[in-house]
Amino acid sequence: MAKTLIVGSDHAGVELKKELADVARELGYEINDVGTHSTESTDYPDYAHQVASAVSRGEGLGLLVCGTGLGMSMSANRHPGVRAAVCGDVHSAAMARRHNDANVLCIGSRIVGTGLAGEILKVFLSSSFEGGRHERRVHKIDPPDES
Ligand code: RB5
Q1: Interaxial angle between packed helices 114-126 and 90-98, expressed in degrees from 0 to 180 and rounded to the nearest 10
Q2: How far apart are CA 103 and CA 2, in angstroms?
Q3: CA–centroid distance, residue 129 to ligand 1 (Å)
Q4: Which of 60, 88, 103, 136 qualifies as a cystine partner to 4, CB 3.0-4.6 A?
């Protein structure tokens, strides 16, 4: 079965998102691009929610690009089962997968250059969750019921 990467961006991230989608295609990923498709001003949560919903349904890994990656991660992390990580370096990208079982990568187009962003994505996609003690910790990410 083809591996799927669900990608989304706002206007600030649209150009970098297209470049990163090409990187993922070269690695054999099928791309589901939920938009935006132009540089016309948009609201990042609209795309973060679409990508996070698809990831929450188990349709694949996600990639979200906005100016900083921050708004995208805040929005995506509201969805059950979604662990979105903002990464600006390759070590964080590897550890986000290996220790945190991240399933959405968020990148800031105004923070990270195209070449580094491509390397971050490659490392994110090629790293795997290590399980073990990290499994227990990941299960503790959702807060206990406070009602
Ligand atoms: C858009 O100007 C900018 O606020 C957005 O791309 C993102 O950085 C928000 O977190």
Answers
A1: 20
A2: 17
A3: 29
A4: 60
Structural domains in the chain, CATH included, are: 3-139 (3.40.1400.10)
What residue's CA is closest to ligand 1, atom 4?
67
Which member of 66, 79, 87, 106 is catalytic? 66
Ligand 1 atom 3 nearest Cα: 67
The residue assigned the tokens 């938009």 is 35
In DSSP notation, 12-60 reads: TTHHHHHHHHHHHHHTTEEEEE----SSS---HHHHHHHHHHHHHTTS-
Alpha carbon of 113 to ligand 1 centroid (Å): 16
- 41-97: pLDDT as tens digits: 999 999 999 999 999 999 999 999 999 999 999 999 999 999 999 999 999 999 999
CA 139, 145, 147 angle in degrees (round to 5)? Answer: 175
130 alpha carbon – ligand 1 mean position (Å)? 32
